[in-house]
């Protein structure tokens, strides 16, 4: 049940403040945000939009070794 409360808190704080909170207090967290001009519109990939990810050190330590390069941000 603790994870449910933490996920709600991080979602409510938003990607920037949520990442800062998770980094300071230790939960492993991965934030995926929409990028581009119109974040609220449904657009096809490649039309001024995409996704960006940002993870905490705890997340990287726990999961980075198992993520494929396209997810972990490494170049193949």
How would you describe the overall organization of this protein?
- 45% of the residues lie in helices and 18% in strands.
- With 76 residues, the protein is an alpha+beta fold.
- The chain has one domain.
- The protein has a two-stranded antiparallel ribbon with strand order 1-2.
- Helix 1 (2-13) crosses helix 2 (15-25).
- The chain is globular, with a radius of gyration of 14 Å.
- The mean pLDDT is 79.
- InterPro entries: ApbE-like_sf.
Fold topology:
Blueprint: H1 2-13, H2 15-25, E1 30-36, E2 49-55, H3 57-63, H4 69-72
Antiparallel strand pairs: 1-2
Helix pairs in contact: 1-2
Quick description:
This protein is of the alpha+beta class. It has helices at residues 2-13, 15-25, 57-63, 69-72; strands at 30-36, 49-55. The protein has one domain (2-64).
């Amino acid at each position: 049940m603790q994870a449910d409360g933490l996920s709600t808190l991080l979602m409510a704080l938003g990607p920037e403040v949520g990442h800062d909170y998770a980094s300071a207090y230790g939960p492993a967290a991965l934030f995926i945000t929409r990028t581009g001009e119109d974040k609220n519109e449904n657009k096809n990939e490649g039309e001024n939009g995409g996704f960006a990810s940002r993870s905490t050190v705890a997340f990287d330590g726990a999961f980075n070794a198992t993520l494929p390069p396209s997810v972990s941000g490494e170049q193949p």
